[in-house]
Amino acid sequence: NQDNGSAQTDIFVADKDGRVDMDAPIIWDFDRITGITALPIDEKTLTITGGRFTTVANQAESKYTYYSRNMAIRRSNVVVDGLEHRVTGEGDHGAPYGGFINIGDCAYVTVKNTVLTGHMTYRTIGSAGEPVSMGSYDISVNRALNVSFVNCSQINDINDTRYWGILGSNYCKNLLYDHCVFSRFDAHKGVANATIRNSTLGHMGINAIGSGTLTVENTTVRGWSFINLRSDYGSTWQGTFIIRNCIFVPARPARVALIGGSYSGQHDFGYTCYMPERITIENLKIDDSNHPEDYQGPAIFTDFNPQMTGDTYVEQFPYVRTREVILRNVITASGKPLRVSDNPFMFRDVKVSKD
After folding, report:
1. Beta strands of 119-230 (E only): which ranges?
2. Whose CA, among 125, 132, 273, 289, lies 20 to 30 Å from 36?
3. Residue 226 belongs to a domain with what CATH number?
């Protein structure tokens, strides 16, 4: 899909004296402020316990008419504990869903011991006039701070490609998965600081743009890459990646890359696009045992721009590339060493340190 972009947006917590909580600092400089909203933070925690819900899937035309039969959380300091949501009756067409748990304009929300369901993927004609798959979510998080999912899972197979990734998020800070089994972690329009630990992620893996620190530890990831920097938002992450004690099971055995993305340097996204300045990878096992005969081994970076093969290529909007990758105990099932990229020119200045 194509659009004209979104307004520059930031969210933060301030106390009664106007002091900003530096665990979620302001990340943008604004030349002009066109709107600001102050929302009170509820002092007492609201706990919602239990509840078994079943959505009978709609049979509407497959268009971007999102259905919102859900629990909408719009106040801060909320705990959802022990909820179960199932979906039944999905057919060969239907309109998408905007999240059974829909969290927005709030802070300090925890969802725990909860079982949810991924939604069937349907296709429509997008804004560019081409067929596209429509995102359909059981969890949606927008303009929210300090949101945690603890000991949560989904009913359907996290590796079943018929179902869309369970989470979609925009404009968030400090997101956490802990002991979760989900098909995807996704930050569309940016997350500042995210942590995924003790979890298993399925076929749509980790997709993100944003800033701060993205930490993934004690986690198994299945997907096209270990972390995919979303190309539709400039494959940008201004900060660092930390990967510890993880397992990567690549979906494409012929071409395996840890960091995925795409950036031509010819499109103005409205902001400077970055790759993580420093990437630390420690105790990573890459299960690339199911590889073809001509397999060359896994790469740190995918080929972000196949056209950039020499100095004659000029980026109109230069990409700020990674400065350093630190590798400690990276093991491949194939026995082949970890390479930098299929595009060595693009990543020629990246310093790779091995302990």
Report:
1. 122-125, 131-134, 137-150, 153-154, 167-170, 172-178, 181-182, 185-197, 200-201, 206-217, 220-223, 225-229
2. 273
3. 2.160.20
